[in-house]
Each structure stands twice: as C-alpha cells, then as structure tokens.
Amino acid sequence: MKNTTFTLAFFTLFFACAPIKKETTDDIEKKIDSIISLMTIEEKIGQMTQIDQQFLDTIQDLSDYAIGSLLSGGGSNPDTNHFEGWADMYDKYQKVALKSRLGIPLIYGVDAVHGHNNVIGATIFPHNVGLGCANDYELCRKVSEATAVEVAATGINWNFSPCIAIPQDDRWGRHYEGYSEHVDIVSEMGAASIIGYQTTKLGSVNHSIVACAKHFIADGATIWGTGMGNQSDKIDRGNAPISDSLIRAKYLPPYQKALDAGVGTVMASFNSINDLKCHANGYLFNDLLKEEMGFDGFVISDWQGIDEIPGDYKSDIVKSVNAGLDMIMVPGAVKGGGEHYKTFLRLFKEAVDEGLILEERLDDAVRRILRIKFRSGVMDSPMTDRTLLEKVGSDEHKAIAREAVQKSLVLLKNDGILPLSSSKHYYVTGSGSDDIGKQCGGWTIKWQGKLGNITTGTSIIDGIEEYTTTNRNNENKKFDAAIVVVGEDPYTEMKGDTDQLYLSEKDKESIDEVKKMNIPYVVVLITGRPLIVNETIENSNAFLVAWLPGTEGGGVADILFGDKNLQGKLSFSWPKRIEDIPCNYDNICEPLFPLGFGLSYSND
Q1: What is the CA radius of gyration of the chain?
Q2: Torsion of CA 69, 16, 374, 141, to 10 degrees
Q3: Confidence at 15, pLDDT banded by 50, 70, 90
Q4: Is the alpha carbon torsion for 150, 437, 593, 173 positive or negative?
Q5: DSSP run (H or E) holding 153
Q6: What is the DSSP string of 444-466?
Q7: In this structure, are strands 328-329 and 49-52 parallel, antiparallel, or unpaired?
Q8: Is there a contact between 245 and 287 (Cβ–Cβ < 8 Å)?
Q9: Which of 301, 558, 255, 209 shows the shortest CA–CA distance to 404?
C-alpha cells in the first residue's frame, strides 16, 4: 500500500479546494495521472466494477473495495419509491464511497429509457418507436433533457440510453426501443437524445447526465431462432451473421453520430456477430470504436453480459477486459442469477497477478472512467442537487410528453370518421382504454412493466373525457360511435420475443362487441411493434397506432378530436403476414404499409 496519510491529505485538499472554473482537458488529464499513480491494483479493479445496489452485502463494501459504480436495474428501487427516496438512497451510497482511501465518487447508472421510468410519479414519455415516427429532432432533444432533469433530481448521473439499435425483425422483444429500421432516422434521433441528456456539453449545467449509446453493435440484426440459449422461438441476444462492410454501412453510422455528439459511454451488446460474442470481440472495441473512431469515453458491459462468453468465469473476465470493456456490470450476486461481485473482484485480481490482464489495460480503463467522472462534474459535485426536485413531473414536462404523443401517432386508415366531434356520444372500451401500465409498456416501474395504475398519469379515456362525455359500458345506451383501445401487454427483452404478433382473444372480443352494435368505430392500437391486424384495419372506420405513449394519454385524445393534426409517419415497414418478417425497406418484401406511410386530416 502507498502512504495512506499522504494520500488522504492530498485528496482532501484536491477535492475541497478544486476550482469552480471549468477545467481544460490538460488539467483533467494531469489530475487523472495523479490519481492513477496513487492507486493500488485493487483500487483500479474497484473502479472498473459496477454493482446493482440491491445486491450489496453491506454498504461499507463501496468504500472497502473502492467500487466505481452502482446501478439500479429494473425494479431495483429504494423501499419508498418516490423521488426523495431515490435522492436519499443515492446520497447515502455516495457518502460512503467518498470515505474510501482516495475518495473517488460513484457514477450511478439507471435505465431511464423513456423518462425516469423506475420512479413512481415520473413523467413517462413515448418509447423510441413512437419518437422515431415523430422524427422530430428538437422534440427528441427536449424529451431527453426533461428526462435528464428528473434523473438528476435523484442524484443519478448516468443513463443507459439512448438505444440506437436498428431493429430488423418485429418479433424482437426490444423492437420498440429502436427509433426506426432506417439508419438515418436512428442516427439523427440518437444524436438528439444524447445532446438532450448531456445538454450540449457534458457537465455544463446541473442537470447534465452521462448518456450511453447502446448496444454496440448490430443488436437489431440478429436472426430468429438464435436467441438466448439458442431457443428456436427467441431472437434477443442472438447471432447476427453479417459482414464488416454491412456493419460499417448500416449499423455503425448511428455510433459515429453519437461520438460526434460527445456521448460519454458506450454499452456492449449481448448479441454475437458471426458466432463471436460482442462482449469478447476486441476488434469491435479496441480497434474499431477506440482506435479507428477515436472514442475516448468508456465502455460498459451489459447486465451479466460477460457471463455469456464461452468458458469459465475467470476467462470471461480476461476476455472481456482485454477486448476493451472498461467497466463490468457484474451486477452481482448468486441470488440475482449471476456471480457474486466479490467473486468477480477476486478472480479479476488473480488474472492480473498471473499476467493474463496487464496493468496497462487497467490504467487505460480507469483513465477513461475518471475522464467521464470529471467531465460529468461528479468529481466536483458528487451529491444530489435537490433544487431539481421541484421540476419533477412538472406541467412543463407533461406538456413535452403530450406533444411527443401527439406527434408520434400514425393514422393508417380513416373513412372520414376522424376527427371526432366533441358534441357526440361515444362508447369507449378495450383493454387499453383505462390502463396506465399498458400504455407505458415495458421498462416502467418494473423491468417488464405491469398492467394497471402503476404510476400517476392520464389514461386514454381520461384524455377523451377532456373533450366529451363517454360511457364505459354499453347497457341501454345510444352511441354515435365507439373507440376501442387494444394492443400488447407490457414486455421487454427476451420475454417479449414472439412470432404471435396478433391481437389477444380479449381484444378481439372487444372489437366484436362494438361491431354488433352497428355503429362506426375507431381502433386505437397500443403496441411496441407492427402487428398482423389486416382484418381489424379493414373492418374499422379508422385505425390509429398509438405505440407506447406513456403517462400522457391526453395526447391520443388531442389527435382523435382534431385539436392537433397528425404528423407521425411509420418509421418501420408494416408487414402483411408473419411469414414476411423480417420486412424492411431494403428487403424483398411488399409491406401492408411502407416505411414513411401515415395519413393526416388533410390528405386522408
């Protein structure tokens, strides 16, 4: 061990007396040099380790092992799941981390992929599939900046977003996390999102948080039947049999845009490329991302991502770190389905002692991590700025979310019934008409999301009732028309993989009910991807795709009643049959509706 008394005195002076003015790049690099020169191997490994807070054996481990990062995965929340509870939890952990020998603060990550979606009361925005249909750069930036404010209000300074996958197969359970099947839309929306999170320059304002471009690379290019465990009915975490030239032409441009926008971190992808796991692919991270593209931030693994590399756990560590992964999301306990973080720390140290991982590799990784900690401002201001709490769930944020809903909706059919008249009487029914959880989808409060009133918000029927009176049952009533809200229940990742892209029997019964009433009806579809609903579209008087709109269901009503005109255009081709999938603009496929299709009230 180096001289502890000197080190503590140095860092107490260093952090307490740090100048308020923004430091130059040279200033930061010199400080990083000083820190690394004082670090032990164990402390370097600690900085490269990320643990889910729910799996900590004891909070003191943060200090004792000099842990560099915590995260809250889906559902990993404080006992009291509100904004103050999150801020209290973050500050509690950060205070302990700052008591480590070198006093290096934590960088804390969360999946705030459509708002601060783990927290009850957060503003939940449309998922990326909807934002891609809006295809509005400035709107996407505003959505991400509002999200950054609500994330920063809880102290958290790192967001595992945006997902800049280019989904090619509607059967993928992460389809809705992608903006589009088209590289240009993904590139532009991804850059807008990063600028929103990081607020033009990382650390420039108090609500700037570190963005993370994910998942590097070609996670949307995997083929059906190669998914987790090579299951024949899965695609998530599967294999992408693609050439380097296709990677460069199609899947790399969004990452170049992300780097141009100054993204601080990149997350490795679960998938394989030509049967080699990305987490073990040194060409991708060392040669392509860091050397050729010049990325100077750090690379984070995905949740237990290194565990899926063939071989024992020690070899997983060696292969992934040598492949260029700088921080490993352990995340880490056996009860969580993976290796305990203390096993990771022990085996990592063994690998270094045996020369399997060079200390120079550790120094490079730690340098990258510290660089982002400095740029983000966490080194100077590690504790929560609670003045931001007053902006959480604000009218301003709700207005942005409502605008995002309005602009993301896509009208596929209209025989003239839309826009609706507020003077008429409507029957509103269907599984999605009054269900906040359904309209938010996955990655909301829980990892997989959940049906019901899981958080505060405006349901679609509540939004409709801002315009007119409705009835929620059809007994002894006379209606001018009906609005039927149907669609997918929440899901994410491999649990959403399916080749049964049809309406549920319950939804079909709701539609059949209104058909028997012999009145005109509008179908509103809540979904994370195109479904095979040809007959439903054909039989309806109007068919509106709402995607996964989030908590502000009033935006759907704004379109239904013509308060706002339609702007959304399909960012994905809509297939005619399951057998046609994957059906994209660059495949040989005749879609039911092509990429870019969408009616408005002036052209229907």
Answers
A1: 25
A2: 90
A3: very low
A4: positive
A5: none
A6: BSBTT--SS--S--B-HHHHHTT
A7: parallel
A8: no
A9: 558
- For residue 47, give both structure tokens: 């900085």
H-type alpha helices, 250-339: 253-260, 282, 313-322
- Compute CA distances 117 → 151, 391, 446, 451, 539, whole Å: 9, 16, 9, 14, 36
Report how far apart, in Å, the C-alpha atoms of 430 and of each of 408, 433, 475 are: 21, 5, 16
The 10 Å Cβ neighbour count of residue 18 is 14
Model confidence pLDDT, tens digit, residues 250-275: 999 999 999 999 999 999 999 999 99
Own/partner contacts of 315-321, CB < 8 Å, gap of 24 or more, are 316/280, 317/344, 317/347, 317/348, 317/351, 317/357, 318/351, 318/356, 318/357, 319/279, 319/280, 320/268, 320/279, 320/280, 321/48, 321/348, 321/351, 321/357, 321/361, 321/365
Query: What is the amino acid identity at position 288?
Result: L
Element (H, E) at 558: helix 554-560
Residues marked as catalytic: 302, 493
Alpha helices in 305-440 (DSSP H): 313-322, 341-353, 359-376, 395-408, 436-440
What is d(CA 404, CA 138) in angstroms, rounded to the nearest whole number?
Answer: 11
Instruction: Output the six-digit token pair for 196.
Output: 């929103």
CA distance 102 to 97: 9
Spatial separation of the C-alpha atoms in residues 475 and 101, rounded to whole Å: 71
Burial 177-204 (b: 16+ CB within 10 A, else e): bbbbbbbebbbbbbbbbbbbbbbeebbe
pTM: 0.95
**Measuring CA to CA, how many Å separate 5 from each of 16, 284, 285?**
17, 42, 38
Q: Helix, strand or coil for residue 16?
A: helix
Position 372, amino acid: I
Token pair listed for 594: 């092509």
**Which residues, other chains included, contact 251 with Cβ-Cβ below 8 Å and sequence gap of 6+?**
166, 183, 217, 218, 220, 221, 242
pLDDT digits (tens, 9 = 90+) for 142-182: 999 999 999 999 999 999 999 999 999 999 999 999 999 99
